[in-house]
Amino acid sequence: MNEIAAQGSAEYVESIAPNEHLSESARRRIRESVPASTRRAYAGDWSRFTLWCIEKQRSHLPATGATLAEYVSHLADGGKASSTIERAMAAITVAHASADLPSPNTRAARAVLRRHRAELAEGGRGVRKAKAMTITALRAMVDTLDVSTIAGVRDRALIVVGFALGARRSELAALNIADLTFTDDGLQVTIRRSKTDKESVGRTTALPYTSRPATCPVRTMQAWLDALAARGETSGPVFRRVDRHGNLGRAPHGRGETSGRITGQAVAIIVRRTALRAGLNAASAFSGHSLRRGFATETHRQGKNPLRIARHGGWKDGSATLAGYIEDADQWEDNALTDVGL
């Protein structure tokens, strides 16, 4: 897998600056301009496409529009999500750019993908949305955590602070202790880089003290940092692996982050596991994104200014995604049938 990831990284560098001599430091920075998770995903997508082409005796580089359409149909037959297929198509485009070749025509492939989306919708398998976390659900989840354990203290801080920030799971996983500043008024959290912040300008979000200690982002984060400090950890990642014996974990079997930093996927697992433990309705629909979606809908229900919500959570002004979250919240709060006399 490491070889595949390295190949994908090299292809990305070449797609940015084909046929140019680059120093190793320049190549490293170009590689790291794209999140590691995206590089790995593209590398895996390209490897799978290459193997499929070999099996079907088709050219993978260059690939034709017909080959791309057939591959998209193959993925659709395998029940892949439309977002997975979109990413595979993007990976194939990057690989062609790396070879200084024109990308295959996507018209037929996109027609196949449109039909696949329709088939998923007709079968009740449309785009799956993470369930928005409510304040009530958050309190119930926190109540199930055993905060006499280090894992419980970590999970409480992750869920509460993740919700309070309106954070993406990748942003939570990337936080370092140096990104946190405690003040008399609360906690300032600096998000160094995000999905929509391609230039790494960063943003700092203020989290005030709240009335309930168990769900106060400032107090729960301080409790987690105190637990880390008691184990001699005062720098590096905020959220770390904890093994079943309560020890701070390192990367399993020498793979991944040697610092013990959790992954975005681990954030999703913690949220879903806690929702299931709390016995919440449709608990399996909770994910890491439930924190961000829930922040948007709950603050909107409380009448907060949409611009304030957007700036706090790092959405761009006029974000269609944020507007969609608010529209979902309003389907009951401002329903056209309310009080019409039915």
UniProtKB/TrEMBL annotation:
UniProt domain Tyr recombinase: residue ranges: 128-338
UniProt-listed InterPro entries: DNA_brk_join_enz, Integrase-like_cat_sf, Integrase_catalytic, Integrase_recombinase_N, Phage_Integrase-like_Recomb
Chain segments annotated as transmembrane: none
UniProt key word Secreted: no
Residue segments, region Disordered: 240-259
Biological processes, Gene Ontology terms: DNA integration; DNA recombination
UniProt keywords, alphabetically: DNA recombination, DNA-binding
Keyword DNA-binding attributed: yes
Gene Ontology MF annotations: DNA binding
Signal peptide limits: none
PANTHER family: DNA ADENINE METHYLTRANSFERASE, PHAGE_INTEGRASE DOMAIN-CONTAINING PROTEIN
Protein name in the entry: Site-specific recombinase XerD
Organism of derivation: Micromonospora kangleipakensis
